[in-house]
Design goal:
Helix 4 runs antiparallel to helix 5. The protein is globular. Helix content is about 40%, strand content about 25%. Strand 4 and strand 5 form a beta hairpin. The relative contact order is 0.19. The protein has seven helices and nine strands, in the order αβαβββββββαβαααα.
Length: about 200
Amino acid sequence: TFVLRCLFMKIMPQIINAGFYDAEVVHGSVHATKPRKVSVYEFEYIIENGGVSHIENGEYPIKTDCVICAKPEQIRHTELPYKCLYIHAIIEDEELKENLRAVPDFYYPTEPDKIKSYFTALISELKIPKPNNNLNASIIFLEILSCLFNEQTQKNGKSINSDKNMKIIDKALKYIDENFTENIILNDIAKHVHF
């Protein structure tokens, strides 16, 4: 249901950058990066055991398959080594920002391979130019956010999806599959599912 709700957001997230990050390549042989204030949302999927990530007052040992969700205004730095897949995004929609406040800064996902595949797909989508890159990247990014939110919903014991919502989502996905060669926009999908 989250992905469908995102189709009707007033302000869609803007992906600034995505890729592979190796702190030792960027920073050389330093022991740790300098503390800095986060300016955009930073989503990271850790691909190799490493040092320690510091976000605000938390210290998190860097373990393969963990996810970091650093939010604007937080102070963070990292003790090396540190390797991850990353996505940096500007998110201005208030409802989406409220949902992100509930996502921990650091956690172990229940389906790490699924999240890793989304990160990899989004990075590939942005690095290899082709038609509909922006729409496809946005859909993949919303899937990543959906995974993050669903995990928190499951941990909090709330219901995730109803049959009605699943039918609407299926209808939206079918429309995308049938029209992906066209220059469709999110409003086209919303109209098709009568939202």
